[in-house]
Every structure is written in structure tokens, then in C-alpha cells.
Design a protein that fits this description.
The protein is an alpha+beta fold. It contains 6 helices and 4 strands; from the N terminus they run αβαβββαααα.
């Protein structure tokens, strides 16, 4: 493991976290992630814990998806371990909240950083690959009936990924995607 690189990545992640916190406070949904306080205060530079923000203009918008990312001893030559802790209905994310993403497997490159991994996972939410599923039922529904697929996504979002503030906002707006829940 390149300790100097890992220290630099951790420092960069903390700086990006600070920028993202300000965007979150401003209501700017373009930020990718925020880190947990335990992660920010930890001396464990191989472990990241935080929340990915659902991509704008997607079925996952406004969702907060808890994650853990762990660098292995061979970093940056081997991909990190990534796992969601929030349940998500998605063709490439299974019930154990593991993620099927090529850069976490065969397409890993030592040039990739933790920040780029998080951006790629976030992009996957908006752009599933139904031809390489971890969750065949979601993949089949995504391919055959997008409307039912989106209803299932909404059910998971409502149950696991939306904050109470967002739920109240959606109720007031009578958000169409979540109308079955209020």
C-alpha cells in the first residue's frame, strides 16, 4: 500500500466533504457525498463511512445512501471494497447492498481515487446496467416495465433513503412518484 497516496486521498476527501457540506446547507443537490463524523475524526485512513447523495433528475434524487468503503492492503493496485448500508432497489445492487460495478472489479485502475469511485457508484444509480445484474428481478422489471420499476424504487426510497424533511416536502408538493405513500 502506498501510505503517502492514501494519506493524500484521505486529506482530499475531507476537503471535498467540507465543500459538499456547504452545498448541502445551501440546498444545492449537486454534491456527491458527505462523510460521517466518526470517519472524519478517525485515524483509520483506509476506511470511509458516509452518505452518497442521490443524483439529480433521477429516481434516486434526494435519497441519502449510507456507504462504507475500505481500502485493502494492496491499494491502489486492487480495488476498494464498497458496500451500501441503505437498501436500494436497483439492478446492480443486491439485497446485501453489494454493488456490481466494473471499476470495483475487472476495470479497476490504480489511477482511480476514492472520490472517483464514489462518483462512479453515484452515476450507476442514474444509469443502471441491466445486462450485468446483481438483482435479476430489478433488471427484468427495468427492461420490461419501467413504470413498475420506478414504483418499486419509490417504495425503497420512501422506506430507507428519504429524510423526514424530504418526505414532508413531497407530501406538501404531492410529488407524483410518491403519491402511493401519502
Amino acid at each position: 500500500m502506498s501510505k503517502a497516496r492514501v494519506i493524500k486521498e484521505f486529506k482530499n476527501m475531507k476537503e471535498e466533504h467540507d465543500v459538499n457540506i456547504n452545498k448541502k446547507k445551501e440546498g444545492n443537490g449537486t454534491y456527491c457525498f458527505v462523510l460521517s463524523q466518526d470517519c472524519l475524526q478517525s485515524n483509520n485512513i483506509k476506511y470511509y463511512h458516509g452518505w452518497l447523495n442521490g443524483p439529480l433528475d433521477s429516481a434516486y434524487e434526494d435519497g441519502q445512501f449510507e456507504f462504507e468503503l475500505t481500502l485493502n492492503d494492496e491499494h491502489p493496485f486492487k480495488p476498494p471494497k464498497f458496500k451500501f448500508k441503505t437498501k436500494i432497489y436497483h439492478p446492480n445492487i443486491d439485497d446485501d447492498v453489494g454493488v456490481c460495478l466494473d471499476i470495483l472489479k475487472s476495470q479497476w485502475s490504480p489511477a482511480l481515487t476514492v472520490s472517483k469511485v464514489l462518483s462512479s457508484v453515484r452515476s450507476l444509480l442514474n444509469d443502471p446496467n441491466p445486462d450485468d445484474p446483481l438483482r435479476p428481478d430489478a433488471s427484468n422489471l427495468f427492461k420490461s416495465n419501467k413504470e413498475l420499476y420506478l414504483k418499486e424504487v419509490a417504495k425503497y426510497m420512501w422506506s430507507y433513503a428519504l429524510s423526514n424533511d424530504i418526505i414532508e416536502k413531497y407530501k406538501k408538493e404531492k410529488n407524483e412518484m410518491y403519491s402511493d405513500f401519502f
